[in-house]
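[step 3/7] fold_predict: job queued, chain A
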Amino acid sequence: MELTHTRLLVNDTEACRRFYAETLGLGDPVVEVEGIYYEFVAGPGRLGLYKRELMQDVAGVTQSARSGDQAVLTFQVADVDAAYAEIKARGAAFVTEPHNQDAWVLRVAHLRDPEGNLIELNASLSS
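[step 4/7] structure written:
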């Protein structure tokens, strides 16, 4: 079994497309079904954005009664501080500034996409 990509179920596909393409800097989607589905190459994996309401028809997905974050999208970068400055300059609001997580041996910063999904930028402290 091989994990090919992560698909986020979102309400506003256009806002999320702009965020991941422009603000986060992933560039143009490699798969594009306007207003429904966008897929980006993100290193060896892919990130898909799919219209949440359409997943109901495919797999019976409904809104969950759970609250709080259920997942984190993690992107490895060469330099967390440089990536933070670049992405912040594009208009992203971060929930944490770059800081060391010594127990993880990582430098990290966190932000959210337009749907509130938590994103972590990280780089190894051991390099």
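[step 5/7] annotate
The first strand starts at residue 5 and ends at 10.
The chain has a mean pLDDT of 89.
exit 0
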